[in-house]
Design a protein that fits this description.
It is a single chain. By secondary structure, the chain is an all-beta fold. The chain has one domain: Maltoporin, Chain A, CATH 2.40.170.20. About 5% of the residues lie in helices and about 60% in strands. It has two helices and 23 strands. The strands form four sheets. It has a 15-stranded antiparallel sheet with strand order 9-10-11-12-13-14-15-16-17-18-19-20-21-22-23, with no helix packed on it. Strand 12 and strand 13 form a beta hairpin. The protein is globular, with a radius of gyration of 23 Å. The relative contact order is 0.12.
Amino acid sequence: MQVDNRYNYALGERLSIRGFGARAQFGVRGVKVLLDGIPATLPDGQTTLNQVDLGALSRVEVLRGPASALYGNAAGGVILLESDIPQGAEARVVGGANGLRRVQGTVGGTRGGMNVSHLRYGGFREWSDADNLRANARVQIGGLRFVANAVRYDARNPGSLADTALARDRTQAFANKRGSRRGSRGARPRWAWCGRGMRAPAGSSWPDMPLPARSKTRFRSGSSTWNGAGGARALYRLEAGPSDGSWAWRVSFQADERLNFVNRLGERADRVLDQRERVASAAGFSQLAATLGQRVDLLGAVRYDRFRFAVRDRLITATNPDDSGSRTLDALSPSVGASWAFADAFNLYGNVATAFETPTTTEFANQPSGAGGFNPELEPQRTRSVEAGAKGGSGSLAAYQVAVYRARGSGMH
């Protein structure tokens, strides 16, 4: 797993697992992210982490490779983030150069708690300031858990400098502050019910996401997008002797309002794109595990995904035709694996897995001709992976893991 940090609050971190996600300019692509059990990844596969407060996390798990396809539209793996609600009250204050100030407060009890943090940063360069407020709360009542996240995120990007401009003044912004501005305001109410053999979480969100403009024209670089998303997932697990199985169903939706404008020295000018984009998905997943003897475990799984991307063009003129339309993508993704516990310190395993990854709405909206609507030439990416390895350890003294894998992807022309 690799994390690339540009130290730019308007761009955020880029995560990649085994190379998947490295093609994204910023944010997370090809990797599924879950926060407190609820997907932070939108149905089309893109993720921003501006709602995640690292100071409020207690646990992070990483599942690598397409064998984690049970979580859906991602080929690289899954990152599971769990918030920390400590007992009692706690406060932290951090200060630094360039106007850095971060204040965090946490209060918690046996049934839940709340964490609030506020970051203000003036920036080393012009047009690089940030003002971010995050809050999350969790309440547990019997088998019912309520989780709520809220964020007010505002950061500016100064852009990159040529060598001559960098030598002259490295604190300046690109071309008289023509860099982008990224904002996000919204809340994410979530709930989860856990009963015997059943888990059914659901959630919704309304983040603003900075998406690049579709046009290659130099001045058509201003863009803004509003996103709304939600969904539900149900999982049932059955245990019967040496084998057990699980079945899962998931539905989700996403709505984007995409606007592109001519950028004139950092000021918004004429509108060149106005369209509403919708993504609806449904998926079913089944998994069966069995034990042979006391040392060999077998695992088989199959998943079916179906996505419908639709766009409605709202900027139609005599010279700009209607680019409305839709596309439907689906795939069946099987996987099989086995492990052999030769000893406590030595465990062999192997798996063959597949994954399905759709283009995001941002990728669909980029057309070579500069027209609106969706690019008809883009196809989903299918990944096939083979992996073998060994792992083990000696109590709490040491642990090791060695893996050899090969992944081959096709699609996304």
